[in-house]
Structures are given as structure tokens and as C-alpha cells.
């Protein structure tokens, strides 16, 4: 039986890429019966007499999957945050980083609209960019006017499935249009009343960009840590995970425990205080989470 990858899901149809062909398929009834939903990014076995009348027979095991947006087998996530309109938020960025790291997806940080910054704010954004680079993240700075910085981003797409995510209104669709002008993805201006953009992307679709497949998505509509336990949170902060090996007590949560290497690193400035503060904030949120039955 032939195999392929779902690159688009729309109105009950699944569009399967097999080599140079795209086959329109429906899911078999047993998927519904077993409460299995095919996702964009799935590797599937299908059968088809022609390119318009195929059926999905089997979904291969997934490396990972996201609920919102519904996509699987993601290699990396470009986290798009604007320097201005809306203002850059390390707290929101760290929240996205935790969710991405927890799903074993490689993050790339992209800060847009750098040309809108006043001179004194440029240094602040540059410092944030340097902080995240020291942790080990790739950070791209992109100007709206001349789209400088795109050449730093595009090579990362090659042979990968990439998802775009970030705060609404930061320019995810605009960024993809700049990279691949033929996409002509719909964009909206920022709502001055709400201070954020309207969602303009209605379905998930993988599109060829930079020798790879890229999904322009509505972003994470849920930023809760529902699948992350308190003991696992530190692993999603790379610099905390690295230092925790030196803590006296195994299972140290880096709050009140004695001889904590993480807290010592914060005091020495080796771990930024705002990253540690976000860790404590997220840990409290997880501990206060109501159990689901």
C-alpha cells in the first residue's frame, strides 16, 4: 500500500503528499469508531484509485503532537514575538518555550518589528536576544521595513517540518509572506481597542518554504501546562536543567531546598533573574492546578 504525509486537513478531507502527487483522502470509519483523528503532519498508509478519491488506512506512530494547533511530527517551532506593537514579553516567550521543550520540539526565537523601537529600547531587545543565545537558542531579529534577518531564518527550514507560533498580531503570516511571496496569506492589522491582532489563519496546512514544510497556524490557543508535572518543569528551562545536576538533593525544585546550585547560579548572574522568576511562577501555577478526573 502507498504511504504519504498529510499536508492539509479541511472539511473532512485529508490531502496526502506522496512524492510529487497530492491525493485527496477521507478517513475510514474505524478512525471515528476508535476516536482517532488524523492530523496534518501524520505519516499515513492510504489507498486510492485516483487523486480525488482516496482513503486513509493507517496512521503511523507520531514523534509528537500538538493539540492547538492540531499538528504532528513537528521538528521545530519558530516562536514569533514582536519588539513593539505588542510589546516584547519574556514571560510569554518563556511560556511558549516550556510548551515547545516539553514536546521535544526545537525552538527558534524570532523577534519582529525591530525597526519600530526607539533607540533606548534597541539595547534592551539586543540584551534579551543575547540572554537567550547564551542559553543555547537561535535568535533572529527581523525588521518590518527591509525584512533584514530573514536570511538568518530561512536556512533552518530545510528538510524540517516547522510550525510558526506566537502572540497574536506579531506578524506570523506577514513573515511567511515575506519569505514566500506567492503564499499571499491573509493578514490583519492590530486592533487598537484590544491591542492585539485578529486570528487570520483558519486551518493548518503544510506549505513548501525554504526546502522544507512550514505550517502557518493560529498559534497556541491554550498556553496551560496541563501535561507538565512540577518535577518536569525544570527540564524545560535548559540552563536550570544543566545546573540542577549540581544540586545536593535529587528532585530539587530550586525553591527552598538547601545547597541548590540553581539558586546559587541566579545569585551569581549565571541564570537571569527573570527566567528564574518565570520558573517559580510556572511552578506555582502547576502546583495550584486542579486535578482532572
Q: Quick summary of this structure?
A:
Belongs to the TRAFAC class YlqF/YawG GTPase family. RsgA subfamily. With 293 residues, the chain is of the alpha/beta class. The protein folds into 3 domains: 3-61, OB fold (Dihydrolipoamide Acetyltransferase, E2P), CATH 2.40.50; 71-216, P-loop containing nucleotide triphosphate hydrolases (Rossmann fold, 3-Layer(aba) Sandwich), CATH 3.40.50.300; 230-287, Ribonucleotide Reductase Protein R1, domain 1.
Description:
Monomer. Associates with 30S ribosomal subunit, binds 16S rRNA. With 293 residues, the chain is of the alpha/beta class. It has three domains: 3-61, Nucleic acid-binding proteins (OB fold (Dihydrolipoamide Acetyltransferase, E2P)), CATH 2.40.50.140; 71-216, Rossmann fold (3-Layer(aba) Sandwich), CATH 3.40.50; 230-287, Ribonucleotide Reductase Protein R1, domain 1 (Orthogonal Bundle). It is built from nine helices and 13 strands. The protein has helices at residues 29-33, 90-102, 119-135, 150-153, 172-179, 230-233, 238-244, 261-268, 273-287, and strands spanning 3-10, 13-18, 21-27, 43-48, 54-59, 65-66, 71-72, 76-82, 106-112, 138-141, 161-166, 206-209, 212-216. The strands form three sheets. The protein has a six-stranded mixed sheet, sandwiched between helices. Strands 1-2-3-5-4 form a five-stranded mixed beta barrel. A hairpin with a 2-residue loop joins β2 (13-18) and β3. α2 (90-102) crosses α9. It is globular, with a radius of gyration of 21 Å. 36% of the residues are buried. The model is unreliable at 188-201 (pLDDT under 50).
Amino acid at each position: 500500500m502507498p504511504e504519504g504525509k498529510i499536508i492539509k486537513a479541511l472539511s473532512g478531507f485529508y490531502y496526502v503528499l506522496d512524492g510529487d502527487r497530492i491525493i485527496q483522502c477521507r478517513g475510514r470509519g474505524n478512525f471515528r469508531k476508535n476516536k482517532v483523528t488524523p492530523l496534518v503532519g501524520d505519516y499515513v498508509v492510504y489507498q486510492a484509485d485516483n487523486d480525488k478519491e482516496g482513503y486513509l488506512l493507517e496512521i503511523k506512530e507520531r514523534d509528537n503532537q500538538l493539540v492547538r494547533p492540531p499538528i504532528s511530527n513537528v521538528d521545530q517551532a519558530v516562536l514569533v514575538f514582536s519588539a513593539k506593537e505588542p510589546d516584547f514579553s519574556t514571560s510569554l516567550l518563556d511560556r511558549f518555550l516550556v510548551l515547545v521543550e516539553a514536546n521535544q520540539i526545537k525552538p527558534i526565537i524570532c523577534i519582529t518589528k525591530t525597526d519600530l523601537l526607539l533607540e533606548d529600547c534597541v539595547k534592551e531587545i539586543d540584551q534579551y536576544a543575547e540572554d537567550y543565545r547564551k542559553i543555547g537558542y537561535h535568535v533572529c531579529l527581523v525588521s518590518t521595513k527591509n525584512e533584514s534577518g530573514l536570511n538568518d531564518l530561512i536556512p533552518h527550514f530545510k528538510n524540517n517540518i516547522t510550525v510558526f507560533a506566537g502572540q497574536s498580531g506579531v506578524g506570523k503570516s506577514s513573515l511567511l509572506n515575506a519569505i514566500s511571496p506567492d503564499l499571499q496569506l491573509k493578514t490583519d492589522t492590530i486592533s487598537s481597542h484590544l491591542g492585539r491582532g485578529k486570528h487570520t489563519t483558519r486551518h493548518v496546512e503544510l506549505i513548501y518554504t525554504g526546502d522544507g514544510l512550514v505550517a502557518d497556524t493560529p498559534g497556541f490557543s491554550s498556553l496551560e501546562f496541563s501535561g507538565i508535572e512540577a518535577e518536569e518543569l525544570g527540564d524545560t528551562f535548559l540552563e536550570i536543567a544543566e545546573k540542577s545536576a549540581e544540586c545536593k538533593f535529587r528532585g530539587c525544585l530550586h525553591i527552598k531546598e538547601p545547597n541548590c546550585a540553581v539558586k546559587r547560579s541566579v545569585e551569581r548572574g549565571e541564570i537571569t533573574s527573570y527566567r528564574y522568576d518565570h520558573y517559580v511562577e510556572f511552578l506555582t501555577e502547576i502546583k495550584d492546578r486542579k486535578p482532572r478526573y
